[in-house]
Amino acid sequence: MYAKIQITGTIEVLTGMHIGGSSAFAAIGAVDSPVIKDARENIPMIPGSSLKGKMRTLLAKEINTVVACKPDDDDERITRLFGTAKKDNVKRSRIQIADMVMANCDEIRSFGIQSLTEIKFENTINRATAVANPRQIERVIRGSEFGMDMIYEVGNIDELIDDMKLLAEGMRLLQYDYIGGSGSRGYGKIKFKDIQADTVIGEIAPKLEAEINDIFNQFE
Question: Which helix (H) or strand (E) holds 110?
């Protein structure tokens, strides 16, 4: 059976989020650590690889029976969904996650906020000399929203529900963790909202599609 399921929704940023971009050509006095932005519109984005990689890492911590040094050594359930390049056991990822750009720019600006990001000043202190080393961290501001778009390719209908439960678990775990950098300092807490799964290629029984949506709605 061949089919594709599109999983859409919204990622809401609950605390300032920093997913780093390039500062290779920053001018003197510029922000030390900028966030990654869409080159066309210069607005903040969440790379699909960042979301996918973080969910996989959290699932590996929860499911793997031993600490896996490489993703290719993850539990079979994880490699089945996310893929593996391990020799003699290559599996193509069943889930594709698109890059996400900020979706509520106009709403943010309607509050009188001119910039879609904020600059947080932080210091590290040399314990021996007590000298402060200040730096400027750019963050996506609280309340920003990003449109999520995932495509799941159905290969084995018997594994579909288990894969959806695993994906939903990865999203649930992420809500209790963080995405991007400096999570231990309060950055990057997010929430998933308005999740909807729809069959866009092929056919899935309506009862099965309803079960998939129930899986995502339970943790949301």
Answer: helix 105-110
Cα separation, 105 vs 110, in Å, equals: 9
Q: Which residue, 150, 57, 174, is CA-closest to 100?
A: 150
Q: Longest Cα pair distance anywhere in the chain, in angstroms?
A: 67
Q: What is the DSSP letter of 17?
A: B
Angle between the 160-175 and 206-219 helix axes, to the nearest 10 degrees?
20
Which token pair is 19? 């997913």
| Sign for the pseudo-dihedral over CA of 25, 30, 35, 36 | negative
Stated pTM of the model? 0.86
DSSP state of 109: H
In the numeric block, which tokens belong to residue 12?
Answer: 């809401």
Q: Are 173 and 183 in contact (CB under 8 A)?
A: no
Give the pLDDT means over successive 10-residue stretches in the chain (220 positions): 93 94 46 83 94 95 80 89 86 94 92 87 68 77 96 93 97 96 91 96 92 87
What tokens does 177 get? 């963790």
> 169: how many CB neighbours lie within 10 A of its CB?
17
